Amino acid sequence: MIEFFTDPEHWSGPMGIPFRLYEHFIMSFQTVLVGALIATPVGIYIGHTRRFEFLAISVGNIGRALPSFGIVAIFHVFVGDIPGNIGFWPTFCALVLLAIPPIMLNTYVGVKGVDRDTLEAARGMGMTEGEVLRAIELPLATPLILDGLRTASVQVVATATLGAYTGWGGLGAFIRDGFAVRDFGGQLLAGAVLVSAFALATEGVFGLLTRWLSPRTASRGRKRVRGAQFETGEEEPIEPIRVA
Fold this sequence. Notes:
Blueprint: H1 2-6, H2 17-49, H3 53-65, H4 68-79, H5 88-112, H6 116-124, H7 129-159, H8 172-180, H9 184-213, H10 218-232
Helix pairs in contact: 2-5, 2-7, 3-5, 4-5, 5-7, 6-7, 7-9, 8-9
């Protein structure tokens, strides 16, 4: 594997690591984006209106039950004749289908899980349904929505490897070619390491994004106040909350 990574030939050209990584990234980004554009509005609508909840749960369960390689193979049969890269469209359609369930389910659960008393208080103050959704439900549901995107992204990155067996490229091409030439300790292992590193990097990026975009809660503020009391021995004055 070290010899594979240190060979200059593997770092240039359409068969090199940078180009294969670029292919894998573009495919993963496009499919997650399309899946999010389809699943997020549906999940928001179901969670906000409490309608068609059975649909969201069923889609989530079906998404967990479908075999990834079977989906890629089925789409290879039905859309393999579309002009272009022989393996691009089967892989693209299969990955979009796999990305939709976790995004839809997490979005629905996140929006639905907002405290009902908070929503009723907001409506009692005269806020419209659109304002309630934008100002309260979506900010509080952001961590779960991002968690759904993270789950979908990691799943897509891992499953895109199977696209190499339907004629597409990506990092899975190293694993496919390693099996073909029985280079198990070099090319195959290097491809597996690259896919694993890409998936872990995707997990880490979404973890940081979730921490950065998650709204601050009152409990965090209370913890900071208690910490200040222990350090100084004095209680910090807390300003009263004024409601306009």
